[in-house]
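Query structure, 311 C-alpha cells:
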C-alpha cells in the first residue's frame, strides 16, 4: 500500500466515524450505553435534615410497611406478601457493618430491609434484600445484599462500595457458583428506594447506566453489571426502563413527606421456553406502622402481624 492509499484510508475512516456519531440517542436506545451516558454524576452537597425529618426517622422506631404481593415466577403469577422495613442506623464506614456503639466517625444510613414470601407450587420462596444508604444522600449505597431461598437451594450476593464496587456472589448453580469481582460505580437500583425516602427530587432522571436489583439479577441469572437505562420522575411516580433487558420498574409514592411507597410494578418477560411471557409483578400497600420491632419478640407481640395483615 503506497502513501496515497494510506492517506485515503485515514480520511475515509475519519468521515465514517463522524457519520456513525450522528445517530446519538437512537443508537443508545438500541445498543450498549454510550460513554457520555455512563459518566458518574457530580457529588452534590450533603442532604439537609429538617426537624420534621429528624422527628420521624430518629425516634427510635422503624417504619414497617406490608404489601400484597403478586409475583411473576416461571411464567405464572404467584400470590404472597412483601414487607419494606426502613430504619436509620450507624454504620462503620470501613467494615460496612452496623456499629455496636456511637462514634462521630460512624456513617448515618437509612437502611431498607425488603422481604418477599410466596409459593411456587409445593415449595416456598423467601427473598430478602438489604440496602445501606447514607443519609447524606450524595454517594452510592455503602452496601447492598440479597439472599434467595427455596427448596432447590439458596443464593447470596453482596456488593460493597469502596474504591470500586466489590461484588461477592454464591450460588448452588454450576454456571454461577462462587464469584468475586469488581465493577465501576454506577446507579444502583436497590438504592433508589431509600434515596426516594430522603428526597424524591434527587432521583436520577434521563439516560444513565444502572445496575438492576440484585434480586432481579439472581432470579433471571443475568450478569451483574451496569445496563443502559432511562428514567422519569413525575409527581408521585418514578419509572425506570432498561431497554436491553426489556424491563420497566415503576415506584408509586406519596409526593409529601415522609414520601411513603404506596405500590410498585415490575414488568419483564418471565418463564422459560413455551411458558415465557411478559408479566407484571405488583406490590400494593396494606398497612404501615412505626415500631421498635427488635424488642417485639414475645408470643404476645404476634398481634402486630395481624395489624400488618401478615399471615
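Result returned for the query:
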Amino acid at each position: 500500500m503506497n502513501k496515497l492509499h494510506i492517506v485515503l484510508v485515514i480520511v475515509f475512516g475519519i468521515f465514517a466515524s463522524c457519520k456513525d456519531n450522528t445517530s446519538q440517542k437512537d443508537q443508545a436506545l438500541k445498543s450498549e450505553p454510550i460513554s457520555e451516558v455512563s459518566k458518574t454524576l457530580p457529588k452534590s452537597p450533603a442532604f439537609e435534615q429538617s426537624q420534621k425529618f429528624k422527628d420521624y426517622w430518629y425516634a427510635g422506631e422503624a417504619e414497617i410497611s406490608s404489601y400484597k404481593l403478586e409475583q411473576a415466577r416461571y411464567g405464572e403469577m404467584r400470590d404472597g406478601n412483601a414487607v419494606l422495613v426502613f430504619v436509620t442506623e450507624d454504620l462503620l464506614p470501613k467494615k460496612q457493618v452496623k456499629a455496636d456503639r456511637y462514634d462521630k466517625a460512624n456513617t448515618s444510613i437509612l437502611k431498607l430491609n425488603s422481604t418477599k414470601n410466596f409459593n411456587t407450587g409445593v415449595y416456598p420462596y423467601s427473598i430478602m434484600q438489604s440496602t445501606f444508604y447514607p443519609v447524606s444522600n450524595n454517594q452510592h449505597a455503602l452496601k447492598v445484599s440479597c439472599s434467595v431461598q427455596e427448596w432447590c437451594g439458596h443464593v447470596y450476593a453482596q456488593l460493597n462500595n469502596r474504591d470500586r464496587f466489590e461484588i461477592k456472589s454464591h450460588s448452588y448453580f454450576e454456571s454461577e457458583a462462587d464469584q468475586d469481582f469488581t465493577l465501576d460505580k454506577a446507579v444502583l437500583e436497590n438504592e433508589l428506594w431509600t434515596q426516594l425516602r430522603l428526597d424524591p427530587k434527587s432521583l436520577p432522571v434521563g439516560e444513565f447506566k444502572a445496575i438492576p436489583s440484585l434480586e432481579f439479577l439472581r432470579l433471571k441469572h443475568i450478569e451483574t453489571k451496569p445496563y443502559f437505562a432511562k428514567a422519569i420522575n413525575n409527581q408521585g411516580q418514578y419509572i425506570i426502563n432498561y431497554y436491553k433487558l426489556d424491563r420497566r420498574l415503576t415506584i408509586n409514592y406519596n409526593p409529601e413527606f415522609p414520601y411513603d411507597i404506596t405500590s410498585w410494578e415490575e414488568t419483564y418477560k418471565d418463564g422459560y421456553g413455551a411458558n415465557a411471557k411478559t408479566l407484571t409483578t405488583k406490590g400494593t400497600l396494606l398497612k404501615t406502622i412505626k415500631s421498635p420491632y427488635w424488642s417485639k419478640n414475645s408470643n404476645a407481640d404476634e398481634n402486630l402481624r395481624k395489624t400488618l395483615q401478615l399471615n
